[in-house]
Amino acid sequence: MAIPRTLEDLGRLIEAEIETDLVSWSVEKGELSLIVERPAIARVLTYLRDSETFQFSQLMDVCGVDYLGRHPRFDVVYHLLSLVRNWRLRIKVQVEEGMPVPSVTSVYNCANWWEREVFDLYGIPFEDHPDLRRILTDYGFEGHPLRKDFPLTGYVEVRYDEEQKRVVYEPVKLPQAFRTFDFESPWEGMETAVKASAVKEES
Fold first, then answer.
1. Which residues pair with 14 in a beta bridge?
2. What CATH code is carried by the domain that includes residue 117?
3. Does the pLDDT at position 100 exceed 60?
4. Tag placement on the chain: N or C end, fewer CB within 10 Å?
């Protein structure tokens, strides 16, 4: 089989090889991206890894993307590298909230912690993952902090309690000090000061 010379040639060749597992592909800003069917992700990655033509031997990253308001809402994104061919490839799987994605830890062992990170930060579950639990936040953490509907303040705040000798969770408090404005700050009240000065000059 002839080795593709351009990303467009590579996209067409992959399309011909994986056929119905492929939803679409495109080349944008010098990068080839594929969208594949969710149930087929492990099969597609296995083929791209083992194929003599492609040899995508390294999984460089797995991450999530939240497109709030879109259906399906989330993308799970896989970045592959072929050292032999000097190719990079982005593969996406689109999933709705609560919809599980097949784990690819059996294909690339390094996917283990990355899938845990996507689960932790976006709440996307992975089927057949050997140890699917939070990895960056605490086990009692509420919500998934990289979702676009997650509040910037979070739901709770954490502090060490001297009396209880342990870390405790409390509702978020955002106290603000009372401030008075004397218009002497260079950042506040300048418009009012300028108007007052103009009125004084006119009189």
1. none
2. 3.30.460.80
3. yes
4. C
